[in-house]
Amino acid sequence: MRLEPPTPVSFEEIKVNVREIEALLQAPPMKMPKWPEAMITLKDGRTLYIREIQESDIPPLLGYLEKVMKVEKDFYDIVGVRVYGEVLSLVRKRIKDPFTLLGLVDGELVGFANGRAFDKDIAISLHTMAFSRRVRAGWPMYYAKTYYALELLGAKEWWSTFESYSGWRMAGLEMAQPTKPWPQFQHELGGARIYYLTKEAWDAGVKDYCKQMIGEDLNFNVTDEVRKANAVFRVPDTAEL
User: Fold this and answer.
1) Does some domain include residue 9?
2) Which of 121, 167, 193, 217 is surrounded by the most beta carbons within 10 Å?
3) In this structure, is residue 186 part of a structural domain?
4) Confidence (pTM)
5) What are the helix (H) ranges across the chain?
6) Structural domain contains residue 16
7) Domain tally for the chain?
8) d(CA 226, CA 223)
């Protein structure tokens, strides 16, 4: 079995063809459902459009994250560095079964959320970022990826950790997520505590609470008007976070 390497390499054979090595280094993929584009009306009346990341988004997104990782406030620096690696891993094919969602308002990036499937029963929350405080995109972006993990992917548990105080308050505290015993169970992001949601807890009330906090549910019937308004992707000019 041979696969093309996702990055230029210095040599093509180490007694075996590098394409055979690549077949071993890339994780065998699960069958991942696609995220259907969605929209939601924000509290200021504007429409947040949530779609999957596209390959053409990655170069400008990486350029913007280089600015974010230099913001030494509210943990944007460390989150920016880690998200940069996670986005780059998409093109380098060094992440197992990822899902990455972008939140746009009139084409401009205002929110980011990603995760990955650990196996058929557990999904891992990686990062949620809001790039404009006035848009308040954090809640709907975290809700969207949780919805994907528990509703579309069919995971039984959703594992999160939090690097910022605002993220912990929003999802860990307000969603009343319990924690796994620590240090026996550690999240892959720095060995922090694992906060988790079961599908049963999600169905029993957390899902409805999220909708109350956002103001409405996701609308998967995206209009042509919203799709047209977000046809051209762009990142903010500056990282004023």
Assistant:
1) no
2) 167
3) yes
4) 0.92
5) 18-25, 58-68, 76-92, 138-147, 165-167, 199-201, 207-214, 224-229
6) no
7) 1
8) 5
Ramachandran bin of 32, using left for φ above 0, alpha for ψ from -120 to 50, beta for the remaining angles: beta
Instruction: Yes or no: say if 229 and 106 are a contact pair by the CB < 8 Å rule.
Output: yes
Strands, E, within the chain: which ranges? 38-41, 47-52, 98-105, 108-117, 122-130, 157-160, 195-198
* CA 153/CA 120 separation, integer angstroms: 8
Tokens coding 198: 């079961």
pLDDT digits (tens, 9 = 90+) for 47-101: 999 999 999 999 999 999 999 999 999 999 999 999 999 999 999 999 999 999 9
CB 204 within 8 A of CB 197: no
Tokens of 75: 């943990």
Q: Is 130 among the domain residues? A: yes
User: Tokens representing 142?
Assistant: 């975290």
CATH number of the domain that residue 96 is part of:
3.40.630.30
Q: Which domain holds residue 41?
A: 36-229
Higher pLDDT, 155 or 207: 155
Cα distances (angstroms) measured from residue 59 to each of 24, 64, 184, 193, 212: 27, 9, 38, 32, 35
CB 40 within 8 A of CB 208: no
- Write out the two tokens for 20: 């055979």
Distance, CA of 205 to CA of 198 (rounded, Å): 11
Residue 209 in tokens: 């609470």
